[in-house]
Amino acid sequence: xxxxxxxxxxxxxxxxMAKSYGDAGCGLGSVIFGNEKGFSQIFAAxxxxxxxxxxxxxxSGTSNCVDQGAMKGAxxxxxxxxxxxxALAKDAARGQGETIANLANLLGCNSSALGQTLKSQYNNxxxxxxxxxxxxEAGINSAISANKAQACGA
Length: 154
What we know:
This protein is mainly α. It is built from ten helices and no strands.
């Protein structure tokens, strides 16, 4: 839990420093209130916090979490896995779900093909790794690179 809190604080602080966002950072609050200085940033931060969309926005590149201060490409995948590993494991066991769709988007894959690959490789990706985010990412990358056309639908 402590690791999750520290990771979240680091992510949020780096996004909050981005010049195209106000002090509240990206997320629904920045869409609604913009980057105006002052009191409106309190409302923006409250909106980001209560709606719970800032982490998703950082991971997926939505809700103004693009360009400066964004988590993109290869940098976004480890953060996404760290923040969603339990839900990702559940969806991978089923071969479908929201976290697989979002991960597929980050990886540039077809979510259906990726879901089937994660389902077939579930024991190699999640069980043997003990839910270590780096090991999960390595397992996913290994499963995809074994047959990119089938695993990613590319």
